Amino acid sequence: MYNLNSDVKKGTREGLGDGLIELADKNKDVVSLSSGVGDSTKAFSIKKKYPERYVETGIAEQNLVGMAAGLSLAGKIPYASSFAAFLPGRCFDQIRVSVCYSNLNVKLVSTHAGLTVGKDGASHQMMEDIAMMRALPNMKVIVPADALEAKRAVVAVADEFGPSYIRLGREKLPVFTNVDTPFVIGKAVTLKKGTDVTIIATGLMVYHSLIAAEKLEQEGISARVINMHTIKPIDKDVIIKAANETGAIVTAEEHQIYGGLGSAVGEVVVQNKLVPMKIIGMPDKFGESGSAHDLLVKYGLTDKEIIKAVKEVISKK
Question: How far is the C-alpha of 36 from the C-alpha of 316, rounded, in Å?
Fold first, then answer.
């Protein structure tokens, strides 16, 4: 189901380009829109084969969303993409009113999300987008763990009517899932069984959580690892089951500790089965310029912090 020793590394943004080409081959209504950064987001990939189905809006993210809404009303399946700092960062109102309020079939894909855009610094390190998007009625929110899962997410949302938001990154990460790893929107994947504690992660933190679980196993701690690739609708059943069976939960995400995966899991836990819980994420701070690795270490988004959190919640059982 997964391979932690994979030598293949890709940015999850590459899943957008791969997914768009696969979709375009099968469905003539799929259209790609970009706001001046198509080369970087990989949305430009579709233009090489289907130039008439690529729309360049220029650096105008509000117009990008408005045009996607119009294309949806015309029966198309538009994929609008940009950097997360700009989508949803600069066009929340258009997403809220033009797309979600009208429940249009628009697929929003952000790339360069999170802390790992590194040297671009705090202005481009979008760490609040999951909170923004999951609060919107009708919106689905998906955060793939690697490039292969990202491609599968891009393809899958085409069959799900309504607004979707897929969050992708720039940094090259190990491709540790495979074609046998399940992927269904709204259904979390238990990658590793465990009885002492559950680690629920999303995005790049899934890989770090698996590493943490392997190290914990050497210390005699059995950690369950769940890939919560869909933040909304969240898989309540798998969370409740984990709370009942392991009695402690740690969440891990490349996002602010407020409003993201940890908050979503906590909402389920507090209403169904109270257990000790710890949230690993950006500690209510803006980032800074630096390498992706150094920033993850500085702000505590590593297997080391996950292991520490696991031991803390187990001690409170």
Answer: 50
Task: Tell me the C-alpha distance between 12 and 92, whole Å.
Answer: 23
Domain count for the chain: 2
The tokens for 240 are: 């409740």
Token pair 């899943």 in the structure block, residue:
15
Closest of 192, 142, 182, 135 to residue 166, by C-alpha? 142
CATH number (domain holding residue 301): 3.40.50.920
Q: Are strands 197-201 and 9-11 parallel, antiparallel or unpaired?
A: unpaired
Is-cis flag, bond preceding 233, omega within 30?
Answer: yes
Mode of pairing for the β-strands spanning 189-192 and 30-34:
unpaired
Give the bridge partners for 80, in sequence order: 33, 108
pLDDT tens per residue across span 80-112: 999 999 999 999 999 999 999 999 999 999 999
30 and 136 part of one domain:
yes
pLDDT tens for 201-222 read 999 999 999 999 999 999 999 9
What pTM was estimated for this model as a whole?
Answer: 0.97
| Distance, CA of 291 to CA of 115 (rounded, Å) | 10
Residue 183 maps to a domain? no
Return the axis-axis angle of helices 236-246 and 261-272, rounded to nearest 10°.
70
Beta-carbon contacts of 207 under 8 Å, excluding residues fewer than 6 positions away, are 4, 145, 146, 173, 174, 176
Please list, in sequence order, all residues whose beta carbon lies within 8 angstroms of the beta carbon of residue 202, skipping any fewer than 6 positions away: 143, 145, 227, 228, 229, 231, 252, 253, 261
The helix (run of H) or strand (run of E) holding residue 123 is: none
Q: Is residue 61 annotated as part of the catalytic site, yes or no?
A: yes
Give the type of residue at 104. L
Choosing from 14, 61, 149, 253, the catalytic residue is: 61
